[in-house]
Amino acid sequence: xxxxxxxxxxxxxxxxxxxxxxxxxxxxxxxxxxxxxxxxxxxxxxxxxxxxxxxxxxxxxxxxxxxxxxxxxxxxxxxxxxxxxxxxxxxxxxxxxxxxxxxxxxxxxxxxxxxxxxxxxxxxxxxxxxxxxxxxxxxxxxxxxxxxxxxxxxxxxxxxxxxxxxxxxxxxxxxxxxxxxxxxxxxxxxxxxxxxxxxxxxxxxxxxxxxxxxxxxxxxxxxxxxxxxxxxxxxxxxxxxxxxxxxxxxxxxxxxxxxxxxxxxxxxxxxxxxxxxxxxxxxxxxxxxxxxxxxxxxxxxxxxxxxxxxxxxxxx
Amino acid sequence: xxxxxxxxxxxxxxxxxxxxxxxxxxxxxxxxxxxxxxxxxxxxxxxxxxxxxxxxxxxxxxxxxxxxxxxxxxxxxxxxxxxxxxxxxxxxxxxxxxxxxxxxxxxxxxxxxxxxxxxxxxxxxxxxxxxxxxxxxxxxxxxxxxxxxxxxxxxxxxxxxxxxxxxxxxxxxxxxxxxxxxxxxxxxxxxxxxxxxxxxxxxxxxxxxxxxxxxxxxxxxxxxxxxxxxxxxxxxxxxxxxxxxxxxxxxx
Lengths: 316, 252
Fold this sequence. Notes:
The structure holds 2 protein chains of 2 kinds.
Chain A lengths: L1 H15 L7 H7 L4 H35 L11 H15 L5 H23 L9 H23 L3 H8 L14 H13 L1 H7 L3 H6 L4 H22 L6 H13 L3 H25 L8 H22 L3
Helix pairs in contact in A: 1-3, 1-13, 3-8, 3-11, 3-12, 3-13, 4-5, 4-6, 4-11, 5-11, 8-11, 12-13, 12-14, 13-14
Chain B lengths: L1 E10 L2 E11 L4 E5 L6 H8 L7 E6 L2 E2 L5 H4 L3 E4 L11 H7 L2 H4 L5 H13 L15 H14 L4 E5 L7 H18 L2 E5 L3 H7 L2 E6 L2 E6 L1 H4 L2 H8 L4 E5 L2 E5 L3
Parallel strand pairs in B: 3-8, 3-9, 6-7, 7-8
Antiparallel strand pairs in B: 1-2, 1-4, 4-5, 9-10, 11-12
């Protein structure tokens, strides 16, 4: 309920915050041909929709990953998936520079899928109860992949353009440049439909098999959901850190991990979180913008630390 | 009937289950005993289709475990392994609800809800329904897992060391409950037990395994003999009769 009200309020605010004056009054005064109306349709609405889709889908990607790995501290950014997808971006820049954005996304998604697979293979050798070791392994894996990406980007003089892609920001989101995010939105729907299956997967392979579920197939669907969301967000908005980690954890504390129940909360809270951060990014140095990833990073890191300390203090 | 025909499972060159042929399901409660590494848990893994056999055939009520869809087997056979660690924050009700998954596929009907309520009631968990699993004691959590298996409403129930980490009171409670599910609900329960005296007083049939083979199989009074137990465990075990029941004395 609270999340819903916040969502509507922030989405409304997001439409009217910016350098040019787009206020309800200006809209009414100018009618449908005015600059304000043009700006609303070409920039503000796409930006707001993009923010909502990114927030919701990244939250879901984190949630699904946490169910697959049975660890609260994983998300695409702590498991090497984002780094693999970024490597995919570099590959398209070098070998297929003329590729349409949807093609770039496809390659990034394929790399992300491979990254998810590598991580799930590696993490099999880590006991499930080693809570902190699992994300550590993922972060190391991501570090290695990121190093490879940086090395080649440096050698090929692409470091700057890669940086521009990876920098999380919605400043460049306009009509015609964000629509791939609907694919991420579609993945949210897939996750929603399969919610019960992901809950059962979260109990582990033995429980899932006992309940007659095809463990591998559900894991495969989950991997595709994670990789496609990561890639779609990467090519449109860049890297948005911590979101997939913090949002599902906060929801889990309140609602628990029954995916059918938590999924609307994760999607809603994720959207609210990114909306709020994006508005902060737009107004803190008005009329300039600071990158969204900076705002999300600062807030997310604090929340993440709080979660870590909290889980450490809880007796098991 | 759960029927195994010449089933073998090897890890490396070591046969953990060695050309085993046995049937379960004629008796209400069957206890599986034997030393560590006898192949008891592997046997459950094989029946529960978590492990593939290297040779032999397994069937549940005539359905071949290797070829029957997992979702069909889940309606007649429930397996609870030992050391269940659930990282997800789920309530007791959530967990028991997942037990209905083979029947509901996630869309609960009135029948499903009845089964959930009955299972929770049966394990005396009504007051803990909306508690998270990580807020329960070991005994309560174990009861929640058993409630989940009961809600699955299968004819065959396999429990691997259900008494692990339980104190005396909860141990007795769970054993009585297992007895009741067999007598009142007509379940066929097979359970791995380390406590041979518990096996002797609650099971209709005791199957003793060693090195992947069955070394003794029969009612308690046939298995609870010093010579048999010594052959199973490789250690001297005395058996005394107390109030007409055989009791193994293995201390001192």
